[in-house]
Design brief:
single chain, about 375 residues, alpha/beta, TIM Barrel, Helicase, Ruva Protein, domain 3, 2 domains, eight-stranded parallel barrel, 14 helices, about 35% helix
Length: about 375
Amino acid sequence: MAPAVRQDLLPVHEGPRLILYYQTHHDSLGNVISVLPLITKSTGVTHVIVAAIHINNGPGNITLNDDPPDAAKFNTLWQEVAWLQGSGIKVMGMLGGAAHGSFLRLSGDDSSFEAYYRPLEEVVRRHRLDGLDLSIEEEIPVASVQRLLTRLRLDFGPSFILSLAPVATALIPGLPHLSGFSYFELETWCQSLVTSTPEAPPTAPIISFYSAITYCNWGDASNPFLYASLIAQGWDPSRIVLGLITNPANGAGHVHLPRMKTVLAAVRAAFPNFGGVMGWEYFNAGLEREGTNEPWEWAQELGSVIRTRSTGVQPSIDARLRNPAQAWGGQLQTRWKGEDLDTLMALGVDMAEAIQAMDAADGNVDLAASFLFDS
């Protein structure tokens, strides 16, 4: 029998995304941590990203975490992936992450690229992944990213989902991040590939979405300023996903569920084409600190806000979020430009702190940001 579906949930292909990373696949006793409750409990999850695929030294030396993707320990995982896909959930693989080297090995000359890329292509095909999420936490040239994206699109076609997971500061000009290239330059290239004719709508961008990581001191998701400030830089809300940490044990920046639901409802009300939410990671999502007993409950709680047809938020908040500096800063006297204050507020500070940092830096937004990072 098919699992019951909540009647108020949006169809899986509509509305904001609800994405979960699935890196820890087994508990401490070796038992599989099942993802099937994501469908049987009607959570509203739209994407699951299996992590983390690593390209190690020597062509063909690919691992899923520490073992080959075809290892027997992953048999149940791949079986459950097929169940998720059968329910309409898109299952992607995450390439890279904190373990460096995967993207450096794909940054060599054409011969070296082919040697390392081909085995990756085979893994994706063998396990019928719906896409790849590129988590680039090492410095590589933008041309290497463009080559990889172009090749993936060529080999897998336009329905194959390609996403990137930059830290949130990478989506604001002039702030430090981890990838070594400009995401604005990458997006300009991405848009240059979009084509349209009078007879056909524009083609979809090669990059489906960016998951903006707010945790581990790269932002603050406890208020709506962060997302609003990213969109103020010109990013399309439908392609910007807010990246959250699901448990304080997984890193700094955890926001408790009641607060997070309020923030997400406000963001969704302000941006009707809100791109969605990503959570790192599934296995301990919400446990212990949120009064939940199972990780799928964390997803279900967020799904009740972003994967239903109504947010329940008063629309009066919309205009304030669309111009956060102007709306909340009007009562504060300052000579600094609103867009500079928005940039600093994306780091998680309030208006008064942003003004104080700009005063100390005499208007140099990069220096002001460094003051806030160092404080």
